């Protein structure tokens, strides 16, 4: 692999974020021309960019840029946004327009990109004692999501991220809380909740002592049987669990969760097999498992990144061999640059089916392809013929209306459909839950 030199000291890795002020330098090393560099910078004004030396040095094959999958996963691409929008912002950059003028143009584009899909702000934020809880989401009966305020960034941003609006500096779009006592009171009034998912951003951007202040109080709650942490740190900065100054403290915290009788599940995002290949990630996985954590893996299916059955079967098999549990293949959500990454549902199902066919039973814990819609997680079970009509067979893996979970239903087959809102019922009547 060709490596971009001079961005890290691999003998003693220390995290340092690479942001848009170095974007031109990096894409310039990939051989981009002046206009191409400006176009990429224009996209980065709309979609947030951040990475680090591990991703740049260890995961990207610079000889294959721009087609390298990890490069596309992390670096903005000129064609991720409508050409007219890119041209307008690029023109402002070329003219040296004031930052506020560039930001205003970027904000216009952002508002058209569905910054908070699936009713996250309108439907998922609960209230307690007459006050809204802006850093909490309660969509499904058993699970509450908590957004710790110090964990609302990441070691590196994914270009597909459905929570990109967390990172653009707009307080009206950001979900975050520092009030763990309020969460405890809410949970006490909702005994049906059995697990809390810390999410972001990425909770693993926090130091161990900060995370402890959120996690430790929850260990007192008998109603909780698991604590989950959504993270891409294993992919983007595995040193968090190996050589970072607080790595041992983090693992001791995880051990305490396990000793308390609760499951500690790391919900790890791996988008491509290359993220599993470095010695650093292998060591990090071993240490997490030794601390009592279970690791479940998930990622969306994305054009240009992993829209190939062999990529998924290789990834799932490697994960199982490392002691991880394949959990979800998602459909890319209807936000941000969805048009760039989207895969039609019929193709997505075939990719899932062929990958599922080619792995052992131990890998077949995985579910998908699944759409995280406003009403719930809708799984595409196949394309079948019912009453002489070709249809999608679907079911809810999880749903706001718990009674709809697991019940099969059918949608008219549409080879171009890539999201639930584009489907219509195959037979007389509506879908079991009507919110797409």
TrEMBL record:
Annotated CDD domains: Radical_SAM (cd01335)
Domain of life: Bacteria
Alphabetical list of Gene3D superfamilies matching this protein: Aldolase class I
Cofactors: pyridoxal 5'-phosphate
Tagged with keyword Ribonucleoprotein: no
Key word Protein biosynthesis present: no
Keywords in alphabetical order: 4Fe-4S, Iron, Iron-sulfur, Metal-binding, Pyridoxal phosphate, S-adenosyl-L-methionine
Name by which UniProt lists this protein: Lysine 2,3-aminomutase
Species in which this protein is naturally found: Streptomyces mirabilis
């Amino acid at each position: 692999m060709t490596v971009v030199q001079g961005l890290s000291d691999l003998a003693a890795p220390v995290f340092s974020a690479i942001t848009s002020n170095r974007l031109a330098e990096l894409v310039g090393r990939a051989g981009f021309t002046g206009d191409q560099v400006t176009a990429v910078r224009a996209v980065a004004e709309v979609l947030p960019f951040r990475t680090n030396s591990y991703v740049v040095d260890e995961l990207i094959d610079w000889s294959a840029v721009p087609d390298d999958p990890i490069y596309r996963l992390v670096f903005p691409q000129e064609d991720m946004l409508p050409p007219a929008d890119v041209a307008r912002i690029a023109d402002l950059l070329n003219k040296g327009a004031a930052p506020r003028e560039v930001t205003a143009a970027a904000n216009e584009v952002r508002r058209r990109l569905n910054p908070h899909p699936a009713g996250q702000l309108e439907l998922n934020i609960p209230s307690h004692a007459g006050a809204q809880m802006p850093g909490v989401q309660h969509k499904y009966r058993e699970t509450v999501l908590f957004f710790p305020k110090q964990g609302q960034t990441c070691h590196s941003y994914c270009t597909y991220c459905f929570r990109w609006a967390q990172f653009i500096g707009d307080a009206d779009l950001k979900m975050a809380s520092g009030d763990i006592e309020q969460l405890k009171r809410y949970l006490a009034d909702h005994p049906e909740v059995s697990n809390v998912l810390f999410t972001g951003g990425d909770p693993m951007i926090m130091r161990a002592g900060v995370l402890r202040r959120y996690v430790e109080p929850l260990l007192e709650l008998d109603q909780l049987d698991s604590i989950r942490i959504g993270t891409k740190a294993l992919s983007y900065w595995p040193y968090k669990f190996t050589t970072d100054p607080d790595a041992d403290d983090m693992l001791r915290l995880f051990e305490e969760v396990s000793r308390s009788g609760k499951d500690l599940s790391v919900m790890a995002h791996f988008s491509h097999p290359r993220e599993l290949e470095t010695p650093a990630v292998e060591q990090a996985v071993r240490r997490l498992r030794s601390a009592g954590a279970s690791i479940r893996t998930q990622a969306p299916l994305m054009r240009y990144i992993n829209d190939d059955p062999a990529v998924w079967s290789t990834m799932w098999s490697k994960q199982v061999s490392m002691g991880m549990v394949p959990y979800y293949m998602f459909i890319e959500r209807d936000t941000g640059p969805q048009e760039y990454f989207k895969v039609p549902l019929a193709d997505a199902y075939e990719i899932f089916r062929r990958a599922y066919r080619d792995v052992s039973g131990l890998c077949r814990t995985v579910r998908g392809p699944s759409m995280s819609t406003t009403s719930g997680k809708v799984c595409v079970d196949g394309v079948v013929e019912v009453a002489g009509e070709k249809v999608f067979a679907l079911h809810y893996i999880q749903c706001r209306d718990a009674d709809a979970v697991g019940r099969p239903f059918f949608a008219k087959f549409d080879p171009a459909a890539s999201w639930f809102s584009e489907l219509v019922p195959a037979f007389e009547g509506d879908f079991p839950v009507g919110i797409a």
